[in-house]
Amino acid sequence: MIWEAIQRAKSEKLNLDVVWLDLANAYGSVPHEMIQLSLRMYHVPEVIQVMLDDYFSGFRMRFSTNSYTTNWINLEVGIAMGCTISPILFVMAMEVILKAAEGSVGPANLGGGCSMPTLKAFMDDTTIICSKEDETRRMLTRLDDLMSWCRMEFKPKKSRSLSIRRGKVDEATTFTVAEQQKPTVSQEPRKMV
């Protein structure tokens, strides 16, 4: 779908921005309060919410060296890797963030009456597709704000962008994520999902 949008923008001489974002420390950064919020928003039965809250409130850790061991510390963020419910909880939490952001801009105009939703996501990879530069910047700002609110962040080093103006790749247009300018796919190619 994304590749088709890019090809259509080139052949129809349209404007299109595609921004690929990667979440830093995806599973390890999801706040437990975000999990509870997503469970409520998706109407998970209260008995399950309480069970999961009890499960996550028991997450503790400590560090040891040859000469010192810390006290146990309660963890307020992170989903256990390998736990069968973790992928579901992660997707639910990300979906809450994406739903909060999606109203920031309209769908990308692909010409000929075709449009595409602005946000596409798979696990910790999110793609923004906009047909106007100001909308792309607005969506990036909104996602950055939401990630900050959740105490999560995108990884600028793994994020990339592609801007097409009147059907041609535009290297002059760049975007920032987490206050860092990101390279374009031409400057630093990277395989993405």
UniProtKB/TrEMBL annotation:
Keyword vocabulary terms for this entry: Nucleotidyltransferase, RNA-directed DNA polymerase, Transferase
PANTHER family reported for this sequence: REVERSE TRANSCRIPTASE DOMAIN-CONTAINING PROTEIN, REVERSE TRANSCRIPTASE-LIKE PROTEIN WITH RNA-DIRECTED DNA POLYMERASE DOMAIN
Domain of life of the source: Eukaryota
Residues covered by the Reverse transcriptase domain: 1-193
Pfam families per record: RVT_1
PROSITE patterns reported in the protein's UniProt record: RT_POL (PS50878)
Stretches assigned to coiled coil: none
GO MF terms held by the record: RNA-directed DNA polymerase activity
Protein's recorded name: Reverse transcriptase
